[in-house]
Every structure is written in C-alpha cells, then in structure tokens.
Design brief:
There is one protein chain. By secondary structure, the protein is α/β, with parallel strands linked by helices. It has a 7-stranded mixed sheet. The protein has helices spanning 20-33, 77-86; strands spanning 8-19, 38-42, 45-50, 53-60, 67-74, 104-107, 113-118.
Length: 120
C-alpha cells in the first residue's frame, strides 16, 4: 500500500513522561522559569501552550529518566495502520490505554513513542 506525501503530520500534543522524583522541579521550570502559557491541570497532567502544540507533563511513578512522546495525525487511521504494518512498524498499544479512540501507539526505530490519531 502506498501513502501519498503528507498523509502523516505533526499532531497537537507532546508528552514529557517525567520520573516522580523530578516532576515538581520540572513543572516549576516550565511554569516559573520558562513561563510558558499555563493551560492548567487536566487528566492528571500539567498542560502548557507550546507554540501550536500542547506540552503535557506526566508524572511517572515507575520511570528512572524522562521520555518524550509525540503525536502524529492522519486522515485515515486504518489506512495508515495497514501502511505502517506493511513497512514493519510495530504497534505499541501496550504502552498506555487510550479509551474511546481509533488511534493507536507505534514507535520509531530508536524507541520514541508516537500516538497516531485522526487529523482534526
């Protein structure tokens, strides 16, 4: 299956998965030092405006170091799933439950987690 150029695009969300021992310090950094526009505490995360995207700071009890998760958007998540499978890109839906969504998780070759969602 061939996808045309531009079928994937950057999404609106970036998540920093932060170890619990560094979480408050990191929230303080973005809120008080960098002074990004603060959107509030939602879905157990602090959210900040990061250009056109939302930066989510997620506290992770079981992480020893931070991790960055990105969002991709596409016009057809099923078509994209077939294309990704044909290109040996493994699904990573075990990383986080995301109810009531047709989207899914994948990772790039170096392990960066990407959420594939329907373009809004």
């Amino acid at each position: 299956m061939k996808m045309t150029k531009g079928e994937f695009g950057g999404g609106n969300n970036i998540a920093l998965k932060i170890p619990k021992f560094k979480y408050n310090e990191t929230v303080h950094f973005y809120k008080e030092v960098i002074k990004l526009p603060y959107l509030g505490f939602m879905s157990d995360s602090h959210a900040f405006q990061f250009g056109e995207a939302t930066l989510w700071l997620d506290c992770m009890d079981n992480y020893s170091q931070q991790d960055v998760w990105l969002e991709l958007q596409t016009d057809n998540v099923k078509h994209a799933a077939d294309y990704l499978q044909e290109n040996q890109v493994d699904r990573r839906d075990e990383v986080e439950l995301h109810e009531n969504s047709d989207g899914y998780w994948i990772s790039d070759p170096c392990g960066t987690i990407l959420r594939v969602n329907l373009r809004k």
